[in-house]
Structure formats: structure tokens, C-alpha cells
Specification:
alpha/beta, 2 domains, five-stranded mixed β-sheet, 8 helices, 10% strand
Length: 387
């Protein structure tokens, strides 16, 4: 029993011993009394010393044998699972081992390091040596167990690789499918690109045709613009000179005058014109009475302005010399002019109303068409007083 160890505890596992029991209930280690233990220890020491003498003489061979067994087990496993070599090497890398020989050396070194304390302890205490030998055997079993665990782990890794391999195959299949779709899309793109290029060529052709049509339209527009420009110029001319090329005609109050042929035989036409400045001095009743009186005297009165239209347009107030008078245009019209003057003086309350002969051939050529073509015999012209 080691020093400091309670006699109530198992020297192997340290579990509490049951009183009266000759073995540990936990690990099964035999527990005997001290005298018996000394006798047994002496006997065991002799046997163990003899056994150790032979075993320790070639402990390296023993460790190598253990390593060879481990190596055989490993290679047997690796032959069964050749596809897990990479995983096994990876696991060996995790344990700090880079080769089988290194693994064997490492196992040998580890076993040697573990056996040396056992041997030393056995030399000190023979009873403990037997126990340590058992531990060595257990360690060998532990190595086998670890190898089994390694094999199991390799199996698990193989399964994972199988699953991952399936996933990789699935992904590869997806990649291949995507590649096929990409190929189809590329083919479709090439086809569409060719169609697009053809469409562009057609569009270019149509554009060239459109350019030619636009050029023709432009020429047509230029021709039409020139024509319209000429038309505008013509309109401008007609607007500026509306009477160019037209025949002169007589107007009455800015409207075409009647045909002189409508004048009845013996009828005397008289124009009555009053300047606007004189209107405040005359009432409408006076003008109506004057007209009625002139009709009674055999004269036909017309109130307003005579003028000309056609190549030029103009209205004339006075057909004489712009003075208040009765102008007559026929030398034989003196008597009718005097009669008209008396009527004017009577109705409009004027002091005097002279009569004057106007020769149509001597008047201004612009006014002459009125005197020659209107059929008028005389004009009563009333102007505002001159200052």
C-alpha cells in the first residue's frame, strides 16, 4: 500500500473498500492482510523478478512487438478502408504523426515511457509491479481501443465522405445542368444576336429609304415653301395694294353706288353733305324737312358721302371748293341750283347759300370719276364757319 494512502481506500482505483471484503468492489483488486501480503509479495517478487529479467532484457522488442501489432491492425483496417486513407492521415496529423514509421516510433516511445515507471516501481515493490504489468496490458488494450475508435472514426468519416460525395455529385450535376442551360442560353443569345443584327440591317435599310424619302419630302417642302413664299408675297402685295389692276367705281357711303342708268328721265339727283363741325347747329327734323321740301321741288336728295373704289379708294366731302354752296355740274343747272339754295336757307336758317358751277373736266382726276359716272346733278355742301 503506498504511503499516505488510507487503508480504507483501494490502492488501485482509490474507491472506498467494504469491510470484510477481500477485493475492491469497484475494480476487483484483491485485498489481503499484512502478513499474508508480505509472504505473497516475497513470492511474487521472486516470480516477477524472474519474469521481468527475461522481459526487461528485451523491452525494446516487447514495445516493438506491441507497435507491430498496432501497425498490423492499422494496415488491416486501412486495407479494408482504402478510401479513408486521407482521413486517417488527417487524424494522424491531428495526433502530431506524419508517417506510419513515425506512428510506430511514437507508439514505441510512448509505451517505453509508460513501461519504465512501471518497471522501476515494480523493482521497488513487487506487488505493485504485477499491478503495473496489468496496467501495461490495459494500456495495450487502450491502444487497441483507440485503434478501434480510430477505425470507427474512419468509418464515420467514410460515411461523411460518402454523404459529402453524394452532395458533391448532386452539386456537380447541378453545375452540369447550369452549364447546359448556359450553353443553351449562349446558343439562344447567339441566335438572338444574329436576329438582332439582321434586324439592325433591316432598320438601316429602312433608315436609308426614309432618308431618301425625307430628302424627296424636303425638296417638295422647299418647292412648296417657295410657292407659299411667292403666295405670301402676292398676298402682301394684294394687302398693300388691294386695288391694283381694278377698275374704278363710284361709292356712296363707302358702298358701291347704283348704276346711273337707273336714273329716271328728268330726275335731278342732289347730294347733301354737312361737315361734322356743323352738326350741332342742325337738328334731324330740319334735315328731314329739307329733304321733303327738295322732293316737292322735283329734286331727289341723297344724304352722305360720295367717293371712289377699285384701284384706289377715297371719299369726298366737298365736290367743289370746300365752301358752303350749292355746286352744280351742268351749265344748264343754274336755275335748279338757285331753287335748292333757297330751300336750304329757309330750313337751316343760313344767311347766304351761293351757287357755283363745277366743270367735271377741270376737277382733280381722282374726283373726276364721281362727277362723270355718278349721275349727280348738284351737291349741297354745308361747311363749318371758317375763322
Amino acid at each position: 500500500m503506498p504511503e499516505g494512502k488510507s487503508p480504507d481506500l483501494c490502492p488501485r482505483c482509490g474507491d472506498a473498500l467494504i469491510a470484510g471484503k477481500l477485493y475492491c468492489a469497484n475494480c476487483g483488486l484483491a485485498i489481503v492482510a499484512l502478513p499474508e501480503r508480505v509472504a505473497i509479495d516475497a513470492y511474487v517478487e521472486a516470480k516477477v523478478s524472474q519474469a521481468l529479467a527475461s522481459r526487461l532484457s528485451d523491452q525494446t522488442s516487447l514495445v516493438r512487438e506491441i507497435g507491430d501489432k498496432a501497425e498490423d491492425v492499422v494496415w488491416t483496417r486501412l486495407k479494408r478502408y482504402t478510401w479513408a486513407v486521407g482521413i486517417f492521415l488527417f487524424l494522424m496529423g491531428l495526433y502530431g504523426v506524419s508517417s506510419i514509421q513515425q506512428a510506430k516510433s511514437k507508439i514505441v516511445d510512448e509505451a517505453h515511457s509508460r513501461l519504465e515507471p512501471v518497471i522501476e516501481d515494480t523493482e521497488k515493490r513487487v506487488s505493485a509491479a504485477q499491478t503495473e504489468i496489468g496496467k501495461s496490458e490495459e494500456q495495450i488494450g487502450s491502444v487497441k481501443k483507440k485503434l478501434d475508435e480510430t477505425s470507427t472514426l474512419a468509418d464515420h468519416q467514410s460515411e461523411r465522405l460518402t454523404v459529402q460525395g453524394g452532395e458533391i455529385e448532386t452539386k456537380l450535376a447541378r453545375v452540369q445542368a447550369a452549364s447546359q442551360r448556359a450553353t443553351l442560353l449562349s446558343s439562344g443569345y447567339d441566335k438572338r444576336a444574329a436576329e438582332f443584327e439582321s434586324h439592325l440591317a433591316e432598320m438601316q435599310t429602312r433608315a436609308e429609304q426614309s432618308d431618301r424619302r425625307l430628302a424627296d419630302i424636303q425638296k417638295s417642302f422647299d418647292t412648296r415653301i417657295a410657292a407659299v413664299t411667292r403666295q405670301v408675297d402676292d398676298v402682301s402685295v394684294s394687302q398693300a395694294f388691294p386695288g391694283l389692276g381694278q377698275k374704278l367705281y363710284v361709292t356712296y357711303n363707302n358702298k358701291p353706288w347704283r348704276n346711273p342708268s337707273e336714273k329716271k328721265p328728268g330726275e335731278i339727283w342732289v347730294d347733301i353733305y354737312v361737315e361734322t363741325q356743323f352738326w350741332p347747329n342742325i337738328s334731324p327734323k330740319q334735315m328731314e324737312d329739307l329733304g321733303q321740301d327738295l322732293r316737292g321741288l322735283g329734286l331727289t336728295p341723297f344724304f352722305g358721302t360720295f367717293g371712289v373704289g377699285g384701284s384706289y379708294a377715297s371719299g369726298f366731302g366737298s365736290l367743289g371748293d370746300d365752301s358752303t354752296a350749292v355746286f352744280y355740274f351742268n351749265e344748264k343747272g343754274q336755275q335748279q341750283a338757285s331753287v335748292a339754295a333757297k330751300a336750304v336757307i329757309s330750313h337751316l336758317k343760313l344767311d347766304d347759300m351761293p351757287t357755283k358751277y363745277i366743270d367735271p373736266a377741270k376737277v382733280d382726276r381722282i374726283m373726276r370719276p364721281v362727277l362723270e359716272q355718278s349721275g349727280l346733278d348738284m351737291q349741297i355742301y354745308i361747311s363749318a364757319p371758317r375763322k
